[in-house]
Design goal:
The chain has helices spanning about 50-60, 80-90, 100, 110-120, 125-135, 155-165, 185-200, 210-220, 235-240, 245-255, 285-290, 290-295, 300-305, 320-330, and strands at about 5-15, 25-35, 40-45, 65-70, 75, 90-95, 170-175, 205-210, 220-225, 230-235. By secondary structure, the protein is α/β, with parallel strands linked by helices. The protein folds into two domains: about 5-20 and about 25-225, 3-Layer(aba) Sandwich (Rossmann fold); about 240-330, no CATH class. A six-stranded mixed sheet has the order 6-7-8-3-9-10, with helices on both faces. α4 packs parallel to α6. This is ABC transporter ATP-binding protein. Belongs to the ABC transporter superfamily.
Length: about 325
């Protein structure tokens, strides 16, 4: 991946929150390399509490990293108030719960126009709001101007939230669980809308989700996150049809169409203030528990040696000693 093709990039990103009463800091994001190309949709996948939302907030400039850096359009993110205001016009957030995102006292028109007013838009506000609503699939837009959120369906509310992001003509959308609160019948419509916006406007998107099925339907690439770090990344077909990390395999095994029995992971993810030594997944890893890692000669490394950070450019796309040992043992392709 060339630098010119990248719109957003995180390099060695870390976000730690101080512990109380002298407790260790919680390492919510603990060394992440991630890149999003222009016109690309990347899915960030993992369990609740793995650091996905904190990573997304740090990419938006809402949380300042403890270490590492965020680059947008090749330039490091500037955290001054003026620079962040300009940045957030180019990078917009779409939240999970449209009911919580919309002020119940504001009409649809005011909700969509709010961003224009914050950024001092000097053009035709009514035309810009109408175009954004239309692009979001609310047509004719004028029919929705004076409606309030409680008068809309869940799918319509999510479209209003998307219109509020589109009205500023951003280059990148960060969508945090954009369909998690919607009925199954509406989910496909919103996903199709995001794909259409990428095609029509050249938008890039980071879609944060716990659902690998959603990633399959919408993403070009997927990054699987566990305990503050991306453990596997690659093209979506590659990762989801031939997963290499045991954690990715476990997430995929619970999908309804997955072959075989679901892989049940023992326990909860460890406390991010007490990350285990070695591979951070080893305390829950079914490959280690079954003896497969021992047979591959990597069990000690799993417990004691950090497998590293998968590179944003595709180098070492999996953080797993067992996966590396299997790759090394595989016969070369003819």
């Amino acid at each position: 991946m060339t630098d010119m093709s990248q719109l957003l990039r995180a390099e060695g990103l870390r976000v730690a929150f101080p512990g109380r009463n002298g407790a260790p800091a919680a390492r919510a994001v603990d060394g992440v390399d991630l890149a999003i190309r222009r016109g690309e949709i990347v899915a960030l996948v993992g369990e609740s509490g793995c650091g996905k939302t904190t990573l997304a907030r740090s990419l938006l400039g809402l949380v300042r990293p403890t270490a590492g850096r965020v680059l947008f359009d090749g330039a490091p993110l500037d955290y001054s108030s003026r620079a962040l205001k300009a940045y957030r016009k180019r990078v917009q957030l779409v939240l999970q719960d449209p009911s919580g995102s919309l002020n119940p006292r504001h009409t649809v028109y005011d909700a969509v126009a709010e961003g224009l007013r914050i950024h001092g838009y000097g053009g035709n506000e009514r035309a810009a709001v109408a175009e954004a609503l239309s692009r979001a699939g609310l047509r004719p837009p004028e029919r929705f101007f004076l409606r309030y959120p409680h008068e809309l369906s869940g799918g319509q509310r999510q479209r209003v939230v998307i219109a509020g992001a589109l009205v500023l003509e951003p280059e990148l959308l960060v969508a945090d669980e954009p369909v998690a609160s919607l009925d199954a019948s509406v989910r496909g419509e919103i996903l199709a809308l995001l794909l259409r916006l990428r095609t029509e406007l050249g938008l890039s998107a980071l879609v944060v989700t716990h659902d690998l099925g959603l990633a399959w339907n919408i993403a070009d690439r997927v990054a699987v996150m566990y305990l503050g770090r991306i453990v596997e990344t690659g093209e979506v077909e590659q990762v989801l049809t031939a997963p290499r990390h045991p954690y990715t395999r476990a997430l995929l095994s619970v999908l309804p169409e997955a072959p075989g029995d679901p892989v049940v992971l023992g326990g909860e993810p460890p406390d991010p203030s007490r990350i285990p030594p070695g591979c951070r997944f080893h305390v829950r890893c079914p490959v280690l528990a079954s003896g497969e890692a021992e047979r591959a000669g990597v069990a000690r490394a799993c417990r004691s040696r950090d497998p590293g950070i998968p590179g944003a450019g595709g180098e070492a796309p999996v953080a797993c000693h067992w996966a590396h040992a299997r790759a090394d043992a595989a016969p070369p392709a003819s």
